[in-house]
DNA sequence: TATGAATGAGTCTTCATTCAT
DNA sequence: CATGAATGAAGACTCATTCAT
């Protein structure tokens, strides 16, 4: 009886390492050897699981996204009022803890890669579709509950998501003018002022 | 009698070429030879003016920014009501024409580089400081004129800028769900709904 | 089960090739590609074993020296009278056979590199220290045996070594006035006249 | 009436600069631009006077030698006993003052170049011929005057010159075991012990 | 005469990828 | 399954040399 997926485990190990390395030194500087070392294995093994560097990177981007969604699923399904769920959801994306920061870094690297890579654009499209649907659903819930003001929920979701992306970038860049605290304040004010 | 600034002219030529190449194929893929060819010169000449690839890239990023500001200065100084100036200003950043799209692409590449480069972080800091001041100034003008609702102008500027950055990225990535038109609509609604 | 020191073998192969190339075309003209070709391998492989050209050169210089010493160890330990051992030792340094000529050429190149490289100066210092000790030891043996005239053995060793170095250079340069035969004659006369 | 040889002056200036640069950073590292800067002129001008880098280097080597001879001519012609003239001559070659050290450095670089350059070998041949004749002449004078012991003067000259070359190299390399003082002591002892 | 901007051939070095073990 | 030695294509950077002024 073979252990279920030694392969799957090893792949995860490599993908996790890849994301860490991307976040640390950037996609451009990443070498297969860096990932191998981080995953405590060899370049040969990395290539055993991923034919090319490109394959590895795409898999890493997808893995980064699916983990990000997994980590938030409970937040969305919670039995809280929409206003609270929205705040919690947005709050969970603030680049404050290491895990979230790493995920954001990887995500930012994906954006720039996607500018010249249709496959990654497609991944982005799906991911953002999902994100928009999630936010818009909460917004509609809130509007139905009379918590949020009226208006096109999708437009609102887009505005909110765009803002979070843009501000997160500034935080990631270590901006002194846009720290996590500032970002939290901006998000708070926007949610307070315009959603209630 | 040397012509005044053969040097300056040639540098511009190279920097312009560098930005075009960055926008087209990305920072990561850019080779000095590409820039040289685009500038109709040789790699030797590029290195004659810029010691290292890094120097060239930094100079290109700065050049990209200063051109971006130059192109908008008149918008800010126009004798229009603040609400119009703000709309025009935001509108000028929509990635619709080639020049603006190129500038955004370069800027996006800078972000990702800046994640691992303190010098570029500093450039980003200055640029965003300037941008925030410009937007916040219009917002305050509008508040003084009674056109905009009250509230912290800086927070508002940050929210607006963040949103524009985030949405632009999606547009640049060729998102079918976030085209320039959609982005324009989102910006319009946000400005209409919250500034009036 | 990795063969014992594929690495060591391969390194030797490369170092040997490097010394040959240095001797043939000179340190200044040496290209990694030359060494690779001589070692019947690729530039990539050379760099796999030696990070930089400098590392390779330093290693080659050390290898050249240690081989030189190995080749002479038996001479020094021979059970001959000191006068014979000294003559044989000096004689073994005459640039007459290909192996010795190659070693001298490499050594000469090291001298010039060492003029501007403290690490190589240190190597030279150790090597000459060893050489001086060896010669001085024979000289003292000879003095104890009454074969050599009295006097400071170290001073004498230095004079002898200096002379051999200087004359060898002339021979290496293909001087018509200082051939190996002439050099041998000069050494003979000095040894005869002053050691007996 | 044109000034006599602006050209000659400028050439000297460049050759002097070339020698200084060779001595400082070595033949291998020398760039035309370094020489130009040292001579307070431009690379274009250097090439105006010397077609190729090789031409410049050869000229510099010759210039270095002729200056070296000029500086010692009076020593040789002095009306002193041969033993004094020989000591003074040898002494003048000790790498103690900056000028002599520079000259030695250049000379050492020439040796290594000559290993792979017949033209420089020829220059070396002439120079050493001259040097040998000078030393041998003093030796013969000394023998005639009964100051020096009998023996082949040329062999003796060769031994002496070889020793000076070899020891100078060690001094130039900054050997802690062979400083100028040590070298002077060795030379003294050799001259004393064997010439008197 | 003198300059220095421009060139491009030449070389080190990097690194994804392969493959024998 | 896993390894890591070996490869070679690719690219940044250097610098002697040229030439218009």
UniProtKB/TrEMBL annotation, chains A, B, C, D:
The keyword Repressor applies. InterPro entries: BetI_C (IPR039538), Homeodomain-like_sf (IPR009057), HTH-type_TetR-like_transc_reg (IPR050109), HTH_TetR (IPR001647), Tet_transcr_reg_TetR-rel_C_sf (IPR036271). Residues 31-50 bind DNA. GO terms for molecular function: DNA-binding transcription factor activity; transcription cis-regulatory region binding. The keyword Transcription regulation applies. Coiled coil: none annotated. Residues 8-68 form the HTH tetR-type domain. Keywords: DNA-binding, Repressor, Transcription, Transcription regulation. Gene3D superfamilies: Tetracycline Repressor, domain 2. It holds the Pfam family TetR_N. This is AcrR family transcriptional regulator. It comes from Nocardioides thalensis.
